[in-house]
Specification:
By secondary structure, the protein is mainly β. It has strands at about 5, 10, 20-25, 35-40, 45-50, 55-60, 65-70, 75-80, 90-100, 105-110, 115. The strands form 2 sheets. Strands 2, 4, 5, 6, 9, 10 and 11 form a 7-stranded mixed beta sheet that branches. Strands 1-3-8-7 form a 4-stranded antiparallel beta sheet, with no helix packed on it.
Amino acid sequence: QVHLVESGGGLVQPGGSLKLSCAASGSIFSLYGMGWYRQAPGKQRELVATITSGGSTNYADSVKGRFTISRDNAKNTVYLQMNSLKPEDTAVYYCNARRATLVGVENYWGQGTQVTVSS
């Protein structure tokens, strides 16, 4: 079982920056692939960025060059640095932990943190 707690959301003006953090507890963090997803009102949850246990990253086209995902296994934490924020980045951002095992896929979600980009 993995417990995820996001923090760092808030209100920011267009062009500004925010850094989200997701603290994990309950299992061996380094074994999990981690990701950030977001859900805007009236829309489906979508992938923002992922980072594997080995450190490989993947980004949605809409955030490439603006967002950076990273992880600190010593602190059991994954981060999302968001720069050049746009109003369309407004959403609830969710942290995800995922690991394939012999009996299936473990998949855990945090409670979400609100990011609002507005002047």
